[in-house]
Amino acid sequence: MDVNHRVAEVTRRIAERSQVTRSRYLQAVAASSRTTPRRQALGCANQAHGFAACGSHDKAALRQGDEGNIAIITAYNDMLSAHQPYERFPELIRAAAREAGGVAQVAGGVPAMCDGITQGETGMELSLFSRDVIALSAAVALSHQTFDAAVFLGICDKIVPGLVIGALSFGHLPAVFLPSGPMPSGFSNDERKILRQRYAEGKVSRAELLEAEAESYHSPGTCTFYGTANTNQMMMEIMGLHLPGSSFVNANTPLRDALTRAAVHRTLALTALSPEYTPIGAMLDERVFVNGLVGLLATGGSTNHTMHMIAMAAAAGIKLEWSDFAALAEVTPLLVRVYPNGKADVNHFHAAGGMGFLIRELLGAGLLHRDVKTIMGTGLDRYTQEPFLNAEGELTWREGVDVSGEAKILRPIADPFEPHGGLGVLQGNLGKAIVKTSAVADDRHVIEGVIRTFHSQEEMQGAFLAGELHRDLIVVVRFQGPRANGMPELHKLLPPLQAVQSHGFKVALVTDGRLSGASGDVLSAIHLTPEAADGGPIAKLRDGDRLRIDARTNELTALVDPAEWEARVPVHEDLSESQFGVGRELFSMFRNTVGTPDQGASIFSGRS
């Protein structure tokens, strides 16, 4: 089927606005490519340093042969359940590389912080900036220039986008991403949400809440709700950087290990030493990024990617805009409901048909570019298949299901949950903001009301506990953008607002901070730009003002007399407490130079 007209038009616009930067980038990729092992261009002392610690077999291969050498870039640590399985991946990868006639070396590690651990704490103010640190770290790891390809071990929030940016800085190298897989299903995400609301209201004890949380996050593997981590996995697969069907195979299983070995074999087949040379910089073109955006919208994925995708694309010389998200959302139906957009988790999604079914449906409707490059070759057709182990324990693929196993979780194009992608761009006299409606009830898509302003999560929580928020209200939390304090995710805002909403009140949120995949069922205008710390209009708001959020017409407007609004002076906030302690003093350069959220909130894009 031909590509949908809107998808084709958005792709064309992206290519046109990116023509100069993309061409310059591809020229750099071509100039860095070579058809002999990269280590052979190094001096003898350089080479000797590079293989000094290897075993005899690998040392001989690196010293004398033409075998490919794979860089392993790992985000392993055992603080993150999703990354703990990576502890044993390097040996799996090295063994698989030898089987395929190559060598693999751990080239370097990148930091991997867990937003689940830092949420509501000071450390969260480093979270967004960690993405760019990860990109820098990956580039340092690859800077030895002794590698012919790279595999990337990363799962969670800022880690995969940072690794993609780092990989694209070495765009002449093939790159394959290796997921670790989700943990098995535990305590229901939906029931846990209710317990969090009851805890916020003082109706359950801390011990009861901790027990529920421990039953939810209970083993190695990715957390099972559909937040940024699992959105990353969906996106890496639909963009062709994973093996087909590999994103949501459980951690530490025979099938997961077989997929890891197969991915290493595939990596060596993609180097410039082989006829299938596929550098990541050429592979990730405008069409691939559009496919990623369609996947994000069709699954109700994390709003963090309204920033991450822009930053990732920029690393390949491609200019994405929020308008691209909005335009594609109008033609991309919502086909998936996984918590927080439903009650199921990613294991249920995978069992219902998962990525194979999703990609088949989107291809059939012309919503994906079929003829893109992937690590499997040309075309997305392989990605409608699912992996399994045959009777001999060998990895193979079969065609995935063509009927969803559970219509409450995964639906066909002909019967979507919603006809649109559940994500929009709001605009008005407050600036631009992202709204995610995939989990918001239809009767709450438009809210107009009186506002109450806060300058921190804690200030808002105090007002909630004092009973001051139990009414129809729009809560405004400002001075939470990247320049102010690194743009932390504001997880502490949701349980109180959900509790107020559960009592029948109409509530909404406006913030220049982040909520990511957890934005849930409260109407929220997030990532507002310009931010308050930049003197954005949000800093003009006063308690008692009326404000309108309309997710149907994409309006975000302060209903203040225009003359009065024009005359108002933005308020200022003392942000010194966010500049020191817990490492924050090391990131002053980041806060001073970071770009705006609609430009990717990146230090690499800078400020215009």
UniProtKB/TrEMBL annotation:
EC numbers on record: 4.2.1.12
Binding, [4Fe-4S] cluster: 156, 223
Residues annotated as domain Dihydroxy-acid/6-phosphogluconate dehydratase N-terminal: 69-380
Limits of the Dihydroxy-acid/6-phosphogluconate dehydratase C-terminal domain: 408-601
Highest taxon, organism lineage: Bacteria
Pathway: Carbohydrate metabolism; Entner-Doudoroff pathway
GO molecular function: 4 iron, 4 sulfur cluster binding; metal ion binding; phosphogluconate dehydratase activity
A GO CC annotation given for this chain: cytosol
Key words, A-Z: 4Fe-4S, Carbohydrate metabolism, Gluconate utilization, Iron, Iron-sulfur, Lyase, Metal-binding
Catalytic activity: 6-phospho-D-gluconate = 2-dehydro-3-deoxy-6-phospho-D-gluconate + H2O
Cofactor(s) required, per the database record: [4Fe-4S] cluster
Keyword Iron on entry: yes
Pfam family, one: ILVD_EDD_N
Entry-linked InterPro entries: 6-phosphgluc_deHydtase, Dihydro-acid_dehy_C, DiOHA_6PGluconate_deHydtase_CS, ILV_EDD_C, ILV_EDD_N, IlvD/EDD_N
Cofactor: how bound: Binds 1 [4Fe-4S] cluster.
Any single GO BP term: Entner-Doudoroff pathway through 6-phosphogluconate
NCBIfam families for this protein: edd
Biological role stated in the UniProt entry: Catalyzes the dehydration of 6-phospho-D-gluconate to 2-dehydro-3-deoxy-6-phospho-D-gluconate.
Family: Belongs to the IlvD/Edd family.
Protein name per Swiss-Prot or TrEMBL: Phosphogluconate dehydratase
Protein's gene: edd
